[in-house]
Amino acid sequence: MPRPDSSEPAVQPDDIAAAMDRIRLHVRETPVLDVGAGQLGLMAPVTLKLELLQHAGSFKTRGAVNRTLLATSDGEVGAAGLIAASGGNHGAAVAYVGRRLGHPAEIFMPSTSPAIKRERIESFGAIVNVIDGYFDDAYAACVERQAASGALMVHPFEHAAIIAGQGTMSIEIDDQVGDYDTLIVAAGGGGFIAGQAAWVRDRRRVVSVEPETSQCLKAAREHGGPTSVSVSGVAADSLGTARLGELAWTIVQHHVDESVVVTDDAIRAAQRSLWDELRLVVEPGGAAALAALQSGAYVPEPGERIVVAVCGSNCDPASVM
Fold first, then answer.
1. From 16's CA, which of 25, 30, 67, 216 has a CA 20 to 30 Å away?
2. What is the DSSP string of 3-33?
3. What is the pTM of this model?
4. Residue 282 and residue 274 in contact, taking contact as beta carbons nearer than 8 Å
5. How many domains does the chain have?
6. Would you put residue 125 in left (φ > 0), alpha (ψ -120 to 50) or beta?
7. Domain range for residue 210?
8. What is the layout of strands, in order, in the sheet containing 127-131?
9. Which of 122, 153, 184 delimits the end of a domain?
């Protein structure tokens, strides 16, 4: 596929504002929580955006709703319904959207994803196919099935409507928090962070957080464009994408200010602290952004006002206790 023109971001603020108007009846406005200095092992206060409380347990629902509503209005959704590949969260979102809007859904997910995510997808009535390997293996099988079925492919990150839908979270943050300096966001294939960066642009700093074992965004920044990386680790089911999306790159290269990485141990520690102090069950990928602050991977300036996206809850509660 030819690389999009990197001189212009693929998604503009107007696209995200339109997405918000389109999806607001189908998504939750997730709350924010102010955390004081000394809590969660932090030296300074932060605001947590609790996107883990979104329908289906993650931010993915925003993009899936926007993509499906647009495709439905354009007559792109037929009797075969929706199809997607996912480590789990996107699949749950597509399954949820399918049930809400009356479309059948079929999801391909890798065997390395937790069983609880498969069960979550099935609870929304979708068909689930488990493929040996990681996301890219599931995606290859999904593409083959889509060609035969004619279902609408709902890609987890490589579509402008997905990115625009994800960016609606930052509209809510503007309304809820007002002025702040830095938004810290976990990154996988890039759709989530690209959506936030496309909305805030140069008004805030945007910091990407990835596991040391799966860092396709950092690699893209270092190589001047998407490049393939290896994938493993505790957050691979949600952040383990081998290559940053091309559309995300058109935004990331302009509006993501810094990229940091965290260890699996730091992610686990963040999960545990969110449970111990706030009684929040957060999956590894959902806790990665907080891990960057706790571990010192990102060190804020004195007085810097920070918002941290806590973006996913689909894990076994016993795994964080």
1. 216
2. PPPTTS-SS-HHHHHHHHHHHTTTS----EE
3. 0.94
4. yes
5. 2
6. left
7. 13-59+159-320
8. 127-131, 105-110, 82-85, 152-153
9. 153
